[in-house]
């Protein structure tokens, strides 16, 4: 039974593409057959985050319009066995594909695959509708900020209207130092407000930018964010994995040491 | 020690964010739009005015979340005087 996971958020720039790339790659590394689908037609990015931008010949719109066969458009990632990418078109827009076409396409991809990971565009218009059309599960990515959480809430409502039950949450860009100072909403705050189960927490990490600079998904990097994504993949596969302790204990010690000898400014 | 000032703890920005989010989501999730609330308020004042004189500027009509997806209208209308009609109708 192939699972079709849509990675969505509502708000742009919170980490959907980064997450889709890492979850797709992480699942393949665990031996699964995975196709990642970029549905952000006109503003494609999954290809560049994966470092596969030079391998694109055909794209999703070509397949839907019958210009080529699915096999011709799928890019096999040479680094990770079992991982494929179906890129979005760059010179078209989201009205080029509709929900029915998406469902037909996904049905065809399902044939030999274990997982399909769909990178959903920001917004709630046709791109979003296309991305969720054939999904069996949803992962909502948010950051602990007012606008992102508000949009995530709207998405949760829209998903339930579409009968996509059991969406799970990834809280991205957490900054434990800010949480400690009371300047960022806690994990509990966010969960309390959105009311869906937590799939994972990813800390704000420079490794994410370094990874995308070189076209490597962060899940394979030796970093806190990488470990967080590996844990998320493990949970998707059904394992119970305790959440990372994100507090930098060493730094915490030095911070309090430093404060003993300096007046706290008002 | 001189120079130390004990100031009351200010509301942390995290707390403010959380409260604002709860309010805004309550409105977002509500099926009653702010425009509709305004129209309702005017309508209710008009209806009640047949029976009583109201302090219109102090009349408040709000929508609150009720349960997981329901809404509740809460009215708070100060009455200045009950009119003759009102007094004799019951």
The run of helices and strands of chain B is HHEEEEH
Considering DSSP H and I runs of 4 or more, what fraction of the residues of chain B is helical? 40-55%
User: Mean pLDDT score of chain B, rounded?
Assistant: 81
Percent in strands of chain B: 15-25%
- Oligomer, anyone? heterodimer
Poorly predicted parts of chain A: 250-256, 262-266
List the total number of helices of chain B: 3
- How are the strands ordered across the major sheet of chain A? 3-4-2-5-1-6-7-8
What structural class do you assign from the helix and strand content of chain B? alpha+beta
Rg of chain A, rounded, reads 19 Å
What is the distance, rounded to the nearest whole angstrom, between the alpha carbons of the first and last residues of chain A?
60 Å
Major sheet description of chain A? 8 strands, mixed
Average pLDDT score of chain A: 92
What percentage of amino acids of chain A are in beta strands? Answer: 15-25%
Radius of gyration of chain B: 21 Å
Apparent shape of chain B: elongated
Number of strands of chain B: 4
End-to-end CA span of chain B:
72 Å
């Amino acid at each position: 039974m192939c699972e079709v996971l849509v990675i969505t958020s509502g708000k742009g720039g919170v980490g959907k593409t980064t997450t889709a790339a890492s979850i797709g790659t992480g699942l393949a590394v665990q031996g699964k057959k995975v196709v990642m689908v970029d549905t952000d037609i006109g503003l494609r990015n999954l290809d560049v985050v994966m470092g596969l931008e030079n391998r694109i010949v055909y794209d999703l719109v070509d397949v839907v319009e019958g210009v080529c066969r699915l096999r011709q458009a799928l890019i096999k990632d040479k680094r990770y066995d079992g991982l494929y990418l179906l890129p979005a078109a760059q010179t078209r827009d989201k009205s080029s594909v509709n929900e029915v076409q998406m469902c037909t396409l996904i049905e065809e991809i399902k044939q030999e695959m274990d997982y399909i990971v769909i990178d959903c565009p920001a917004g709630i218009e046709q791109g979003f509708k296309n991305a969720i059309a054939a999904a069996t599960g949803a992962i909502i990515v948010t950051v602990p900020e007012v606008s992102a959480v508000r949009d995530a809430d709207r998405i949760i409502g829209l998903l339930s209207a579409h009968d996509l039950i059991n969406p799970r949450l990834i809280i991205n860009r957490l900054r434990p130092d800010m949480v400690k100072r009371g300047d960022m909403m806690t994990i509990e705050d966010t969960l309390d407000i959105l009311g869906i189960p937590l799939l994972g927490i990813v800390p704000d990490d420079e490794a994410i930018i370094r990874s995308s600079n070189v076209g490597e998904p962060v899940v394979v990097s030796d970093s806190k964010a990488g470990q967080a994504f590996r844990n998320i993949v493990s949970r998707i596969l059904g394992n119970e994995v305790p959440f990372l302790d994100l507090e930098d204990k060493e730094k915490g010690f030095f911070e309090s040491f430093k404060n003993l000898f300096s007046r706290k400014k008002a | 020690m001189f120079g130390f000032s004990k100031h009351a703890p200010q509301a942390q920005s995290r707390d403010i964010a959380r409260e604002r989010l709860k309010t805004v989501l309550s409105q977002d999730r509500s099926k009653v739009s702010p425009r509709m609330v305004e129209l309702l308020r005017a309508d209710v004042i008009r209806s009640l005015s047949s029976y009583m004189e109201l302090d219109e500027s102090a009349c408040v009509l709000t929508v609150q979340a009720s349960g997981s997806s329901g809404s509740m209208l809460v009215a708070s209308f100060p009455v200045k005087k009950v009119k003759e009609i009102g007094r004799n109708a019951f």
